Amino acid sequence: MRHLLSTGDLDRDQATLILDTASELAQVADRSVKKLPTLRGRTVVNLFYEDSTRTRTSFELAAKRLSADVINFSAKGSSVSKGESLKDTALTLQAMGADGVVVRHSASGAAHRLARWVDGSVLNAGDGTHEHPTQALLDAFTMRNRLGRLEGLRVAVVGDVLHSRVARSSVLLLTTLGAEVTLVAPPTLLPVSVHTWPCEVSYDLDAVLPKSDVVVLLRVQAERMRESFFPSVREYTRNYGLDGERLGRMPEHALVMHPGPMVRGMEISAEVADSPRCTVTEQVANGVSLRMAVLYLLLGGS
């Protein structure tokens, strides 16, 4: 494995290796000295064309815990915003000797293009509405930690699938790992190509909840929408929001997950967000271990 561009590129063994490696590295987080010398002398560049404090910080922490040098290359206010192309930026990073480039870009496919132009490993930290592989991996890691398995789990992914990069990555990954995925959303928030995805589709959250082991709520991405996708916030919440009453209809062991940031009162009520069955803060902690594992495997930890 040289790059991590899409969860669709991972077979079951590769995906399991990443999760198993993350489990081992998670134990380092409990030690007083959290650093490993594994990637000393390696350089990881965080190339973020879109703001994402959570993902960028998580990758930065992961790289530093493995003793890599980290360069944060923010595209805001740099030569990039003066019109430098992705290719020119790639050649600059190449000249700096970047061993790994973590990229987030608003254009779907940007990570794949970058991978053609640099010798180092490229990690896709979100490209457009296309994919976000490490988020899908850390979610799978969290499910496996909490429920002990992925094989046969029934996972519902609920909400704004159309604008979500997590949804596609999760469907591909979870299906590879033996889970059964159902997308739940209003028809207006599903991509045209959804019939080609390896999952079920439902428009009825209440029908799906009682038979779900995990419910992954997606943020309603208001910033990518014009008001036409659903009649009103109230209407959306009534049909697709998870509140205490709906939580009560889920099996006792079932988890509620959210890639963050949560819009409380819209896709998730405060009561559910603060309940012990909601794994959001755990997902953030697991994200560091998972991204350490990916950096370790790609940049040649032995």
UniProtKB/TrEMBL annotation:
<dbReference type="Pfam" id="PF02729">
    <property type="entry name" value="OTCace_N"/>
</dbReference>
<dbReference type="GO" id="GO:0044205">
    <property type="term" value="P:'de novo' UMP biosynthetic process"/>
</dbReference>
<dbReference type="InterPro" id="IPR006131">
    <property type="entry name" value="Asp_carbamoyltransf_Asp/Orn-bd"/>
</dbReference>
<dbReference type="InterPro" id="IPR002082">
    <property type="entry name" value="Asp_carbamoyltransf"/>
</dbReference>
<dbReference type="InterPro" id="IPR036901">
    <property type="entry name" value="Asp/Orn_carbamoylTrfase_sf"/>
</dbReference>
<dbReference type="InterPro" id="IPR006132">
    <property type="entry name" value="Asp/Orn_carbamoyltranf_P-bd"/>
</dbReference>
<comment type="pathway">
    <text>Pyrimidine metabolism; UMP biosynthesis via de novo pathway; (S)-dihydroorotate from bicarbonate: step 2/3.</text>
</comment>
<comment type="function">
    <text>Catalyzes the condensation of carbamoyl phosphate and aspartate to form carbamoyl aspartate and inorganic phosphate, the committed step in the de novo pyrimidine nucleotide biosynthesis pathway.</text>
</comment>
<feature type="binding site">
    <location>
        <position position="260"/>
    </location>
    <ligand>
        <name>carbamoyl phosphate</name>
    </ligand>
</feature>
<dbReference type="Pfam" id="PF00185">
    <property type="entry name" value="OTCace"/>
</dbReference>
<feature type="binding site">
    <location>
        <position position="135"/>
    </location>
    <ligand>
        <name>carbamoyl phosphate</name>
    </ligand>
</feature>
<feature type="binding site">
    <location>
        <position position="54"/>
    </location>
    <ligand>
        <name>carbamoyl phosphate</name>
    </ligand>
</feature>
<protein>
    <recommendedName>
        <fullName>Aspartate carbamoyltransferase</fullName>
        <ecNumber>2.1.3.2</ecNumber>
    </recommendedName>
</protein>
<feature type="binding site">
    <location>
        <position position="261"/>
    </location>
    <ligand>
        <name>carbamoyl phosphate</name>
    </ligand>
</feature>
<feature type="domain" description="Aspartate/ornithine carbamoyltransferase carbamoyl-P binding">
    <location>
        <begin position="2"/>
        <end position="144"/>
    </location>
</feature>
<dbReference type="GO" id="GO:0004070">
    <property type="term" value="F:aspartate carbamoyltransferase activity"/>
</dbReference>
<dbReference type="GO" id="GO:0006520">
    <property type="term" value="P:amino acid metabolic process"/>
</dbReference>
<comment type="similarity">
    <text>Belongs to the aspartate/ornithine carbamoyltransferase superfamily. ATCase family.</text>
</comment>
<feature type="binding site">
    <location>
        <position position="104"/>
    </location>
    <ligand>
        <name>carbamoyl phosphate</name>
    </ligand>
</feature>
<feature type="binding site">
    <location>
        <position position="132"/>
    </location>
    <ligand>
        <name>carbamoyl phosphate</name>
    </ligand>
</feature>
<dbReference type="InterPro" id="IPR006130">
    <property type="entry name" value="Asp/Orn_carbamoylTrfase"/>
</dbReference>
<dbReference type="GO" id="GO:0016597">
    <property type="term" value="F:amino acid binding"/>
</dbReference>
<keyword id="KW-0665">Pyrimidine biosynthesis</keyword>
<dbReference type="GO" id="GO:0006207">
    <property type="term" value="P:'de novo' pyrimidine nucleobase biosynthetic process"/>
</dbReference>
<dbReference type="GO" id="GO:0005829">
    <property type="term" value="C:cytosol"/>
</dbReference>
<feature type="binding site">
    <location>
        <position position="219"/>
    </location>
    <ligand>
        <name>L-aspartate</name>
    </ligand>
</feature>
<feature type="domain" description="Aspartate/ornithine carbamoyltransferase Asp/Orn-binding">
    <location>
        <begin position="151"/>
        <end position="298"/>
    </location>
</feature>
<keyword id="KW-0808">Transferase</keyword>
<comment type="subunit">
    <text>Heterododecamer (2C3:3R2) of six catalytic PyrB chains organized as two trimers (C3), and six regulatory PyrI chains organized as three dimers (R2).</text>
</comment>
<feature type="binding site">
    <location>
        <position position="165"/>
    </location>
    <ligand>
        <name>L-aspartate</name>
    </ligand>
</feature>
<feature type="binding site">
    <location>
        <position position="55"/>
    </location>
    <ligand>
        <name>carbamoyl phosphate</name>
    </ligand>
</feature>
<feature type="binding site">
    <location>
        <position position="82"/>
    </location>
    <ligand>
        <name>L-aspartate</name>
    </ligand>
</feature>
